[in-house]
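Known limitations

Files may contain more than one protein. Parsers should not assume a single record per file. Below, a two-record file is shown to illustrate correct handling: read the sequence, read the token line, then continue until end of file.
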Amino acid sequence: MTWSDHQAATAPYTIDATYLDRVEQVVQYALDEGPYVVLNVHHDSSQWVSKIATEHDTVRARFDATWTQIAERFKDAPRTLLFEAINEPTFEGATAEQKAKLLDELQVSFHRIVRDAGGNNDDRLLVLTSQVGTPSQELMDDLHRTITSLDDARRGDGRPSDAGGGVQGHHRRVLRHHPLPG
């Protein structure tokens, strides 16, 4: 989904309720057909998230507000609804090292916001990606560091995820990238 045309560009970055209702309706149509559905922050990645290196606090506040609203709205949706933090992230004017840190920061924040929203978000599959969705070894290594740093070894009730037949923590994150050409 692209949120920016239906979201206030200033704090508190409220997503238009009518638009959010329509997104929920379309997501439900898809879920009713039986497939897994991925809901993400899509074109926003190039429209405003890409400016995080120069507008850090504003972009982080908007990103966090976006995911807070999405996570709250869909917290009771079935686990066949997956959330993807961001699609094909790019960061204008940042070094390679800064880009890795910025993407890690966004994905860690996304993870915390969704998990803290409760409901089915406690065990929802979360999709994380590399910069621009590129599967180069260096970017996959960066993504691996992010994924392994996340604490998904608990369930909503605080017990380890494998206690009593719960979902294994490492199985609640999905890595996504675009295939290499050729």
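...continuing to the second record:
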Amino acid sequence: MHADIHLQLHHLDAAELHRSTELHRAATDSVSLAPVRARIGWTLVALGLRLAVPATARPGATAPGSARRLPLAA
């Protein structure tokens, strides 16, 4: 096969790959994952803060060993 034919085939393949890449990018740009990523990120931050702060230092937490008692019915 002649060298010019190989070059032409290469250009055709490259053009087809570029078109398919542009179509793929256009399809993925329309579906944005930014809100999902932000929600997951903030959820992980909240989880990390819960794990970093001891249970006794959290608002509304009772001291270890002292359980909340419900009032007895009269």
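Parsers that stop after the first record will miss the second one. For reference, the second record is described as follows. DSSP finds two helices and no strands in the chain.
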